[in-house]
Amino acid sequence: MLIPYSALSQLPSDTVDNLIREYLLRQVEDGSFDAMSDDALTAAITKCRQSLAKGELVVEYSEDDESVAIRRCEDVVYTDPNDE
Q1: Could you say which architecture CATH assigns to the domain 2-74?
Q2: pLDDT band for position 36 (50/70/90)?
Q3: 69: phi then psi, degrees, rounded to nearest 5
Q4: How much is the pTM?
């Protein structure tokens, strides 16, 4: 299930930032974000927020494992509930 961007604005900013940080860290397998400056991380978080607002990134809730993750829009598999 996709969580609308408008719903994210109702969450505390720190919660959204932590979700974005988790997404960014998953994108860098070698862990280079650990060595990045705070300014670079802040810039990356801002860019992700903009991508979420534009719909390039989406927040997906997995009912199977009760988790939330940010994904690129093209990576989300849409299923038709009528197919079940």
Answers
A1: Orthogonal Bundle (1.10)
A2: low
A3: -150, 150
A4: 0.78
